[in-house]
Amino acid sequence: KVANTRRDWAHKLSTTIIRDNQAVYVENLAVAGLTRTRLATSVHDAGWSQFVAMLEYKAVRYRRHFGKIDRWFPSSKLCSACGTIAESMPLNIREWTCPCGAAHDRDVNAAINILAAGQAERLNDCGAQVRPGLVPAPREEAVTHPEPHARQTGISVL
Ligand SMILES: [Zn+2]
Asked: How confident is the model over 25-37, as pLDDT tens digits?
């Protein structure tokens, strides 16, 4: 029963996140490493891998951009205001102030950095490849063959 409740919650949250955002970026956490730390319980409880997998396939379904940020990116140590990287950032530190004067909530600062890194990576991607999905279909073709995403929008993911 607990597993079902958890999966249901993960489905609802991932659907909301994907529907409400054009692009979603996640940090590619070293889950295997975290499970050996005192954060093990929260990582397992959150079903992180399962949740990320849901985000990924729903992003495809809703034609959103989805990206994973390298796990070695210093999202927590990096000051999102000035770019300075703090020497250490133990997990128990939830708020910190950079020498530049910027006061940070650990998670909000990390989220800002992950978003910026994801957007930078996406710009590189766009320059390197042409995406067939972004090419509009000719008018007559659109009439005889509705675009795939037009049909998908009606499908409930729950
Ligand atoms: Zn700073």
From this structure: 998 776 556 666 6
